[in-house]
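Consider the tokenized backbone below.
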């Protein structure tokens, strides 16, 4: 290219270079804005993910806590029921022992008579372990043992017996 052509094209070249520079600056500015929006959106998305994960963790922890609380209540209730059963059995045993200590032959005869009245005159009557009697006739059984009588008596106390383990 000759010097005169170069001189003639110089203003055009300068204009093209300037225009290209402005376009590059505009493109760079737009790219920076786009990048800024992308970063802002990525931060919002990341925060939403973090918030969701935290909520899920809280929900999971609350569920685990509720499960553990339920287990604790069940375990406490089981211990309470065992203690109540022990008190019930102890009271029943004390009543049974007290009746057996009497060694009252008249009471035994009255119980045997009751068996024969309920089951019939041919009922077999035998002494029950711990006192009282058990009668059998025609496949039927009547338990008039001291232990059964004591257990029934304690059961009949109903809510009154609960005072034994109430605070």
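A designed sequence for it:
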């Amino acid at each position: 290219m000759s010097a005169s052509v170069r001189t003639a094209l110089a203003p055009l070249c300068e204009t093209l270079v300037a225009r290209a520079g402005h376009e590059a600056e505009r493109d760079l500015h737009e790219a920076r804005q786009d990048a800024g929006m992308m970063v802002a959106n990525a931060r919002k998305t990341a925060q939403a993910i973090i918030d969701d994960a935290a909520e899920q963790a809280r929900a999971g922890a609350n569920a685990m806590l509720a499960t553990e609380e339920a287990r604790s209540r069940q375990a406490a209730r089981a211990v309470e029921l065992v203690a109540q059963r022990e008190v019930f059995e102890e009271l029943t045993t004390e009543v049974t022992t007290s009746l057996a200590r009497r060694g009252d032959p008249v009471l035994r005869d009255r119980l045997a008579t009751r068996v024969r009245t309920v089951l019939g005159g041919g009922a077999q009557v035998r002494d029950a372990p711990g006192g009282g009697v058990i009668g059998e006739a025609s496949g039927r059984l009547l338990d008039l043992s001291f232990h059964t009588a004591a257990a029934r008596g304690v059961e009949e106390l109903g809510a009154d017996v609960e005072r034994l383990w109430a605070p």
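The mean pLDDT is 86.
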